[in-house]
User: Fold Glutathione S-transferase C-terminal-like protein from Lentinus tigrinus ALCF2SS1-6.
Amino acid sequence: MFRKVMIVLEELGLHYEPVYLNLSANESKEEKHTKYNPNGRIPTLIDHVFAIWCVPHSDATPLGDASKGTVGELNCVSCGESGAIISYVTEKYDRTRKISFEKFEDKMQLLQWLFFQASGQGEDPSAIIGYQEIIRVLGVLESVLSQHRWLVGEKYSVADVSFITWNHAAFACLVKDYDGFDLEKDFPSVHRWHNEMLGRPAVDKVFAMWQAW
Ligand SMILES: N[C@@H](CCC(=O)N[C@@H](CS)C(=O)NCC(=O)O)C(=O)O
Assistant:
């Protein structure tokens, strides 16, 4: 979950400072985190002037310079839910529309995929999600990706990014040893799409950082 937000930040060349929380030790439930994200889950993005869970802090003093796209000290508001974070980051900082869209219809399709990913793939990849549901979601992706290289607007975007980490966990663990599961054979377009994304420098960098933690 965390990685997909980092991939977006990397793709946009934004400066950020990852803060690691030990979920097993319930650090995400501690007040130092829930004051920014009352859901007590990760990821949470803290921009120096705004955050999406809209927790107002009366002592807010904006720091840094939003126009420079830097992420500075915590101060006034914070933001959780990976889909909302991704939308926030691209709407605010992807000024050249490298991985997002200007056209209304494309924006709405992008949102559709962010919602679909969040609802269709559940939350924590380690949670119990039925094999049939995983296959059903892969089938939806396959039906689109067999016709189009990318999910929206014929270019790589955060719609595609939103699936990388969950799918990676699913392919590496959840369905890997499931009798009869063959990603390349049964979902060739998903296989092509996923591997193309893994080859991107931003994705590669974040996965390498993740492995080093
Ligand atoms: N819908 C949320 C899901 C967040 C989520 O499930 N995060 C997991 C880690 S991947 C988490 O914080 N688990 C710890 C917990 O539930 O206490 C999102 O997309 O941001």
